[in-house]
Structures are given as C-alpha cells and as structure tokens.
C-alpha cells in the first residue's frame, strides 16, 4: 500500500506534461542544473535556524532600536497569587457571571474583587509594545532584504518582462543559483512563520494566516518540484513588496510617529492593490492560466497549482477589504488607530473584553472600594 501511495503522489502524469519524466530532471545536460525535491527539503532544518536568527536579531538589533526610540517593555501589574483563580483562568480567561459569583462565595471575596483579579491577570499576558516592535522589525528586515535580492536577479531575467518565457521548453529549464537561494530562503521563512504563529502575538486573522502559510508552503514546494520556478520567484517577489510597507507602518505606529504611520499605511494600501490585485492576477495568474494552456497545455498538477494561486487571490481580496477600511480612516480622519488585519491582538481578545464588560454591567457596584489595594490597583482592558 505504501508503494502504491508513493507511486500516486509522485506520478509523472500528475506533475508533468506528456513525454516528460522524473528521469529527465535527474539527468540534466553537462553544466546545467534542474530542480530536485531533495534540494528544497533543506528549507525545513533551515527554518529552525531562521527561528534562532530571529531571536538573536530581536535581542541584539531590534531591542536596542526600541530603546533608542524610547519604546520600553514596561512592567505589568502582577495579579495576587491565587491557585483557585489561576486554575479557572487557564481554562477560561473571562468567566461568566455565575462562575464569578461562585468564586466570590468560595474565596469569600467581593464579586468586583474577583473580576478585578481576572482583568489584571489578562493584562499580564498581553504582549508589550516593545515585543510587537521587535517582531515587526524582524519581518520588515526579512521582507526588505529578500525583495531586494529577488529584484536583483529578476530584473535581468527575460521572463520578468515577457511571461511567455515561463513556458518555453518547460519543464526542462535550467535552475540558476539565484533562483535556488530565493526558493530556499522563502520556504525556510514561511516554515518558521508556521512554527512561530502559535507563540507570536495572536491576531484576528490567525486562521486566514494559517491557511495562507500552508498554501504558500505547498505552492512553493510543488512549483519547485515540477520546475515552475520562473513563475514562482515572481509570485514571491510580488507578495513581499507590499509587506515591507505594512511592517514599516507598524514600526512607526509603535514608535508613536503617527503622521509617518498614516503615510506609510496609505503607501502600503496602494502597493497592496497594485501588486496583489493588479500585477498578481492580470500578469502572473493570466500567464499561468492562459499562456501556459496555449504553449504546453493543461496537465493534472496544472489544475492543482492554479487552484492554490486562486486561493491566495481570494485571501488578497479579503485582506484588501480590511485594509481599505483602515486606509480610508487614515485619509479622512488623519489617524490609523487600528490595523484590522495585523495590529491588534486577536478577535478572541476583543470578544473577551466585550463579554467581560457585559458581565460587569450585571454586577451591582459596591458602595466603597476598600479592597482594591489588595490586588495592586485596577488596570483597564482595551
């Protein structure tokens, strides 16, 4: 069964047009290199190296920059140690009114005191502005570096200007060192994002980003395996271009340069529209869908890869809707208060605050606040 499954996965009729086999790619002419799947597997261990490099970068580069910009980590108020409340918190960060009243009776605490303990405890777990700044600076540095690298080797490539060159003599097209380095770097980075997404700052679009990273990893690996690297490098370059301005806008926001943040966010919105809603569909997808059909004809992997490209396009449309809302606020109100796509912790966090506010509204206010001091004061959710 394992042999039949392997034969199905690596079927030449699936991956290549007619009259092309794996042997053709394994035995290139002298002085020519074709992609081999074993080469790209190097990206997986490199992903862990990228995670280590990120930790070093954030500590030695991003954090000192944050100090220069006076972005401090800040000390969070610590909730009073309480094993009972901590156990409840680990299962539910904002208990409902019935649970709060039960805990109040169990601990002989005022209801407001219990509610205040959970509010302080939630604030402890929120990421600091400095942590957000370091994360964004790492992403900005990678996107900027890999974009410059991609442009340098794509600019002199004939398929950059004539997309029909993607398909001439396909898939027996030589692999350049620049293409290989670009692929391995991008794939290692996206694998590292897949791993770190579960420990990084939680965002509203967690599920969408998970689907995006997964589709991207499958698309990069698949396009390399059947030597669709000419189109693949251009797809990755187009995606990285606008992300540079998004991360730059977030850095300006964390450093409290509001006008710079607003300007960069508008630039990001324009670049996102041009690269992902104009160049990507009308330049790249058009070529992969129609020009490849004319030159080499469709085959099984052709449908698979085009399906993934279209999945990414659907995600682009969803994101642009969210981005446009914020860009309009920036233009007409003069301030980017929140980035619905990436700059707030998570939708679940907002739901927690909303639910907690509703719970509080049903709790009668005490006549005095004499027990507030025992919980190190009161903090505010946002």
From TrEMBL:
Region of interest called Disordered, as start-end residue ranges on this chain: 339-382
Keyword Cytoplasm in annotation: no
Gene Ontology cellular-component annotations: endoplasmic reticulum membrane; nucleus
Membrane topology of the entry: Multi-pass membrane protein
Residue intervals of the TLC domain: 131-332
Gene Ontology molecular functions: DNA binding; sphingosine N-acyltransferase activity
Keyword terms of this UniProt record: DNA-binding, Endoplasmic reticulum, Homeobox, Lipid biosynthesis, Lipid metabolism, Membrane, Nucleus, Transferase, Transmembrane, Transmembrane helix
Nucleotide-binding as UniProt keyword: no
Annotated metabolic or biological route of this protein: Sphingolipid metabolism; Lipid metabolism; sphingolipid metabolism
DNA-binding region, residue intervals: 87-129
Membrane-spanning ranges: 37-57, 140-160, 206-225, 263-283, 303-328
Catalytic activity: sphinganine + octadecanoyl-CoA = N-(octadecanoyl)-sphinganine + CoA + H(+)
Major location category of this protein: endoplasmic reticulum
Chain ranges of the Homeobox domain: 85-128
Location(s), subcellular: Endoplasmic reticulum membrane; Nucleus
One GO process term, biological-process aspect: ceramide biosynthetic process
Annotated protein name in UniProt: Ceramide synthase 5-like
Species of origin: Sphaeramia orbicularis (orbiculate cardinalfish)
Gene responsible for this protein: LOC115422083
